[in-house]
Amino acid sequence: MHRYFQFAEHGTTYKTEIVAGLTTFLTMAYIIVVNPAILQAAGIPLGASMTATILSASFGTLVMGFLAKRPFAIAPYMGENAFIAFTVVKVLGYSWQAALGAIFLAGVVFTLLTVLRIRGWLAEAIPLNLKYAFAVGIGLFLAFIGLNETGIVSLGVPGAPVNLGNLHNPSALLAIAGFLLISVLTVKRVRGALVIGILAVTAASIALGLTPLPHNLVSLPPSLSPIFGRLDIASAFSVKAIPVVLIVFIMAFVDTIGTLIGLSARAGFLDAKGNLPDIEKPLLADALANIVSPILGTTTTGAYIESASGIEEGGRTGFTSVVVAVLFLLALFFTPILTITPAHAYGPVLILMGVFMIKPVSRLNFDDMTELVPAFLTIALISFTYNIGVGITAGLIVYPLLKLVTGRVREVPTALWFLAAVSLLFYVVYPYH
């Protein structure tokens, strides 16, 4: 295992990789509960959905670990699950089975494009400035999620889209204490600072009665039979479903590429041209997960931005992903205890990710407006629309447009024009209502 994952080349150890895997898992374990809760609105049974969520995350992350050998965890995407539940099913009237069929088709296309090396070709066409913007935007997005999840920032306040939360709330105060604790430990270079912070806040929350202990520590996983293999591929082939398939495809496509590049920039995996070597392997892991997840009964899966927490703890190889995958499998039987981590315990880690991932902003080209404007739009819209796909597609459209009108069209690779066209199509077919 030590040789297979090239520990020596990456300057890492089993201890570092295990701590990194545990950190990533604790930071993203909320998906075990949150994803089924969202998909329940689409009519997908809660218990079976929880099992599907865990199995799809474990499968994708194992493939990422052993095939791509990267410390990136895979799980059902937040945002895409809400789009399926509330827009595709509740508003547009599709069945959840047809929606899963659309995701399956997208996964098949992803796989074909990856095997043919087209996805890698497209990813390498993205300008270096935009790649830096992806990393910064994702970092700020994580910070915004953390601030909202912990109650430090509140949404939907009359007269303002965001506002200061109620800092008299004990959970918000615990989150602030957790953020300060992790920051101090990080400054002092204490290994495992993120895990220590998460566990300390969780313990304090239990002691204060804010987080109840589960009645059972071990339980059998709910049966997968109500949703396993129930996807409706035929309906996804209908003309009416084309916009849904396109949106699912584009959202997953840009989210995955943006996340992989952003995480790789933080981990130091990018080469001198800003490309991720052997990017086809993590893309293939993502594509295969998108075929398996709808069969299991859950929505679009892909590389998780919370993987940044494990990277920050020193995770540099696929062994980190293997640890995450094993922990997800254990969660099948220890769901009651593994899912008690409250938002005010993992939220401070997400906020700190914004600190860790802001560094590439110094590499942006501030002297060239044709480079700066697309980068700014990408960073701003990822956070302000609460959607990675919206920010990335906006940057991909504006970048070649500005190069065209300034007479610098030769700076735009052919593949980037294709990405711009696909991104524009996203806004055309998106069901805004």
Estimate the strand proportion: under 5%
Describe the largest sheet. 2 strands, antiparallel
How would you describe the shape?
globular
Mean pLDDT: 89
What Rg do the Cα atoms give? 21 Å
Unreliable sequence segments: none
Total domain units: 1
From the N-terminal CA to the C-terminal CA, the straight-line distance is 51 Å
SS summary, helix count = 19
How many β-strand stretches? 4
User: Could you state the oligomeric state of the chains shown?
Assistant: single chain
User: Level of helix content?
Assistant: 55-70%
**Strand arrangement in the largest pleated sheet:** 1-4
SSE order in H/E notation? Answer: HHHHEHHHHEEHHHHHEHHHHHH
In terms of structural class, how would the helical and strand content be classed?
Answer: mainly alpha
Short description:
The protein is mainly alpha-helical and about 425 residues long. The chain has 19 helices and 4 strands. The protein starts with 6 loop residues before the first helix and ends with a helix.
Textual characterization of the structure:
It is a single chain. With 433 residues, this protein is mainly α. The chain has one domain. Helices cover 66% and strands 4% of the residues. The chain is built from 19 helices and four strands. It has helices at residues 7-10, 14-28, 31-39, 46-68, 80-91, 96-115, 118-124, 128-150, 170-187, 193-207, 233-236, 242-267, 280-296, 307-312, 318-338, 343-356, 369-384, 388-405, 414-429; strands at residues 74-76, 153-157, 160-164, 301-303. A two-stranded antiparallel ribbon has the order 1-4. A hairpin with a 2-residue loop joins strand 2 (153-157) and strand 3 (160-164). Helix 9 (170-187) packs antiparallel against helix 10 (193-207). The longest helix has 26 residues, at 242-267. The radius of gyration is 21 Å and the shape is globular. It starts with 6 loop residues before the first helix and ends with a helix. The model has no long low-confidence stretch (mean pLDDT 89).
